[in-house]
TrEMBL record:
The keyword Repeat is annotated on this UniProt entry: no
Pfam families per record: Asparaginase
Annotated EC: 3.5.1.1
Domain L-asparaginase N-terminal: 4-161
Matching Gene3D superfamilies: L-asparaginase, N-terminal domain
UniProt keyword Acetylation, yes or no: no
UniProt feature coiled coil, ranges: none
Protein known as: Asparaginase domain-containing protein
Record key words, sorted: Hydrolase
Lineage: Bacteria, Pseudomonadati, Pseudomonadota, Gammaproteobacteria, Lysobacterales
MF (Gene Ontology): asparaginase activity
Amino acid sequence: MNELCVVTTGGTIDKIYFDDKSDYQIGEPQIGRMLAELGVAFRFSVIPILRKDSLHLDDADRELIRSAIAAQSAAHVLVTHGTDSMIATARVLASIEGKTIVLTGALSPARFRGSDAEFNIGTAVGAVQCLPHGVYIAMNGRIWDPSKVRKNVEANRFEALEP
């Protein structure tokens, strides 16, 4: 991997909460700071595309994400994305050829102590370097085929679809 292209779209990973009413905004992307603090041994660039909760993404947003990734010269792309509609976006990205694309996010904001953000990003960074071209989801310590996974909202985790 010569360089990792990181595309950010918002989601819980970048949320900032303001008060006890759970008001929030999607803040600055956290992944660039996180990778720099961890001292990763590869070059990366961060391209912020959107700052939205994934429940608010529509087809036009997904097309914007798809076209932005397709326009990048990098063959390795990590996408930070909200978990609620990550699978829908992954399916749109499947039309991009010649790239390894891994989507990841967090079930609690990266700014929170005990967040799963760093773990999921670490899993995604490893996956994007090792997997063949295609689109994948890295959540809960696993790498998922977007056509064979679902988010279990009640259990707050990703799991295999029933066959």
